[in-house]
Amino acid sequence: MNVESTAKYMRISPDKVRPLMRRVCGLPVNDALSMMQFSPKKGAAMVRKVMKAAVANAVNNHESDAEQLRVARATVTAGPSLRRFWPRARGSASPIRKRTSHITVELTDGRDEAQASVADAGRPPAAG
């Protein structure tokens, strides 16, 4: 069973969050949460918030055990950019793009894979 949680329009550049997302992918949730808790990066607090929301979704909506959950997929995509201008010399202006991110965390407890292997065991082999 896969459960996902998304936080949209987070005020941080996706380039700053992607390294954090790569580090937590495939880890047990407890390890990933503790890694984000002690990371000095600004994006770590945002990723931790989304992970805690996904754990709450899994526990409350799907009756999963929080100890069995793993991070199946963690992605960050670019959201819309706020466009501002900074005054420059001689009456000109330079553009500034304040980027936003959409952070998605998907958790799994491994039940789908076990059920799929049991279901496949009863099927006849495919003709080749």
Largest sheet: 3 strands, antiparallel
Strand content: 25-35%
- Total count of strands: 5
CATH architecture: Alpha-Beta Complex
By CATH's scheme, which homologous superfamily applies? Ribosomal protein L22/L17
**Taking strands numbered 1, 2, ... along the chain, how are they ordered across the largest sheet?**
1-5-2
Radius of gyration: 20 Å
Summing up helix and strand content along with how strands pair, one would put the structural category as alpha+beta
The parts where pLDDT drops under 50 for at least 5 residues are none
**What's the mean pLDDT score?**
89
SSE order, as H and E?
EHHHEEEEH
Shape: elongated
Q: Assign the CATH class.
A: Alpha Beta
Oligomeric state of the chains present here: single chain
CATH fold group:
Ribosomal Protein L22, Chain A
Count of spatially separate domains = 1
Q: What level of helicity do the residues show?
A: 40-55%
What does this entry look like structurally?
- By secondary structure, the chain is α+β, with helices and mostly antiparallel strands.
- It has one domain (2-115): Ribosomal protein L22/L17 (Ribosomal Protein L22, Chain A), CATH 3.90.470.10.
- The protein has four helices and five strands.
- The protein has helices spanning 14-24, 29-37, 42-62, 111-121; strands at 2-10, 70-78, 82-87, 93-98, 101-108.
- The strands form two sheets. It has a three-stranded antiparallel sheet.
- The mean pLDDT is 89.
